[in-house]
């Protein structure tokens, strides 16, 4: 599966069970990137996306996702599914926010395939990094 995750400069994902930030232009980018594919997430994450054909919502989405499916992860535990992840896409906010949940996996053994800066609405620059095993 292909995992997409938003992180701050310390790898933070959540603070007090809430997302640290969100960005409308990033959501559009994610929907454009996954057009014609399946994009899995839980109900918490789906609440920020408009209905679209690729959106698949389930609380056990990481278990249901196939090898070629995308998974947008904000509050799910990735550790049990680490061996199934073939690609990681980070969206970096370039800020430090308070966080009580951080990205849990070690990137040793992963290779940065590409990096590109995106223009955001809430953040002037959001960096997309794509890693592969």
- The CATH architecture can be given as 3-Layer(aba) Sandwich
Q: Write the H/E string, N to C.
A: EEEHEHEHEEEEE
The number of domains is 1
Shape: globular
Structural topology:
Blueprint: E1 2-7, E2 12-15, E3 18-19, H1 24-33, E4 39-41, H2 43-46, E5 55-57, H3 61-64, E6 70-73, E7 87-92, E8 101-102, E9 111-118, E10 126-132
Parallel strand pairs: 1-6, 1-7, 4-5, 4-6
Antiparallel strand pairs: 2-3, 2-8, 7-10, 9-10
What brief labels describe this structure?
133 residues; alpha/beta; seven-stranded mixed sheet; Dihydrofolate Reductase, subunit A
A few lines on this structure:
The chain is an alpha/beta fold and 133 residues long. It has a single domain, classed as Dihydrofolate Reductase, subunit A (3-Layer(aba) Sandwich), CATH 3.40.430.
Structural description of this entry:
The chain has one domain (2-132): 3-Layer(aba) Sandwich (Dihydrofolate Reductase, subunit A). It has helices at residues 24-33, 43-46, 61-64, and strands at 2-7, 12-15, 18-19, 39-41, 55-57, 70-73, 87-92, 101-102, 111-118, 126-132. It is an alpha/beta fold and 133 residues long. The radius of gyration is 14 Å and the shape is globular. The strands form two sheets. The protein has a seven-stranded mixed beta sheet with strand order 5-4-6-1-7-10-9. Strands 3-2-8 form a three-stranded antiparallel beta sheet, with no helix packed on it. 14% of the residues lie in helices and 34% in strands. Strand 9 (111-118) and strand 10 (126-132) form a beta hairpin.
């Amino acid at each position: 599966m292909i995992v997409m995750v938003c992180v701050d400069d310390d790898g933070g994902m959540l603070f007090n069970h809430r997302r640290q930030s969100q960005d409308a232009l990033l959501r559009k980018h994610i929907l454009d990137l996954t057009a014609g594919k399946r994009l899995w997430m839980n109900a918490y994450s789906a609440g920020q996306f408009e209905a679209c054909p690729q959106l698949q919502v389930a609380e056990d989405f990481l278990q249901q996702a196939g090898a070629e499916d995308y998974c947008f992860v904000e509050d799910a535990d990735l550790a049990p599914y680490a061996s199934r992840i073939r690609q990681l896409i980070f969206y970096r906010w370039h800020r430090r926010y308070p966080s009580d949940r951080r990205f849990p996996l070690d990137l040793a053994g992963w290779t940065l395939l590409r990096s590109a800066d995106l223009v955001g609405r809430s953040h002037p620059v959001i960096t997309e990094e794509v890693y592969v095993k």
